[in-house]
Design a protein that fits this description.
Blueprint lengths: L4 H11 L6 E7 L2 E10 L2 E3 L4 H7 L9 E5 L10 H9 L1 H9 L2 H12 L4 H15 L12
Helix pairs in contact: 3-6
């Protein structure tokens, strides 16, 4: 969805910037959501994913009531302590991890953080290290 210029102006003012990703929150048909505005091909866009559409009872092509505003909440994804420890023990993997784009670092951290058992955490941290060293696929990706 393209965001109207008047709405963008207000968001930019609240965010204190008009470049990079703009974190937002709002509602679609009174269903709350958290999302990020991104600029693509010169236009600011709000991507409405499936959970957002389902939650709002809408589908592609529907007209909806929407409210969006800047979201100042911290969205930092913290690194799991076991992943941090494994990276500290393997300097090469740590160097490669630090050179990944922030979005890929966040993806790896988020994946590890959502695992439930120590066994799955340990197994997947090993896979993550092997992925960084170019030995194994991880979270559907080939070498970094």
């Amino acid at each position: 969805m393209l965001v109207p210029a008047a709405v963008l102006k207000g968001l930019f003012k609240e965010a204190g910037k008009d470049k990079g990703h703009i974190p937002i929150r709002g509602t679609i048909n009174d269903h709350p959501f958290t999302q990020t505005l991104v600029k693509y091909s010169g236009k600011w866009r709000l991507y409405l994913n499936t959970p957002m559409r389902r939650g709002s009872g809408s589908d592609v092509g529907d007209t909806v009531n929407m409210d969006i505003r800047f979201d100042p909440a911290d969205r930092t994804v913290k690194m799991h302590p076991k992943l941090h420890s494994a990276l500290q023990k393997n300097k090469k993997a740590n160097t490669i991890f630090s050179q990944l784009p922030p979005s890929r670092q966040k993806e790896i951290c988020r994946y590890i953080n959502h695992l439930k058992t120590d066994e799955s955490i340990n197994r997947n941290i090993k896979k993550a290290i092997d992925f960084l060293l170019g030995r194994e696929r991880f979270i559907g990706r080939d070498k970094p």
